[in-house]
Design a protein that fits this description.
The protein is built from 7 helices and no strands. It has about 120 residues and is mainly alpha-helical. It folds into 2 domains: about 55 residues, no CATH class; about 45 residues, no CATH class. Helix 5 packs across helix 6. It is flat and about 55 Å long.
Length: about 120
């Protein structure tokens, strides 16, 4: 149900969809869930205040998840670290590598849509 709210094409239609879903939840006697949607939906729709080209980048954390998977993959190969510093050194080395390669330099968002007309 929550995915349907965020699949809308504007903040206004997402708010209307949230109201409709909250009403359906109340009919199903799920008052606590309806109250959560009513009170918290505005906070989850803040990405709608930005240009629509950026919505998918703002509402997801795919880049961070990808980096975490890469670090997890590297640390699992080692298995057991002798101390915390060796684990930290491996993670820092991987982060340094990512920051220095094309992957670290890739532009995540095109900021020309965010330019404010004066």
């Amino acid at each position: 149900m929550a995915k349907a709210i965020h699949a809308q094409e504007s903040k206004k239609s997402a708010g209307e969809k949230a109201e409709k879903i909250a009403k359906e939840l109340r009919e199903m006697k799920l008052n606590a869930a309806a109250k959560k949607i009513e009170t918290g939906i505005e906070e989850t729709l803040t990405y709608c205040d930005f240009p629509s080209e950026h919505w998918s980048k703002i509402r997801t954390n795919n880049t961070i998840e990808r980096l975490n998977r890469e670090i997890r993959r590297r640390t699992r190969v080692v298995g057991c670290f002798p101390d915390g510093n060796s684990a930290l050194m491996l993670v820092c080395a991987r982060l340094r590598y990512v920051a220095g390669t094309q992957w670290g330099n890739k532009k995540y968002m095109n900021t020309k849509h965010l330019d404010v007309a004066e």
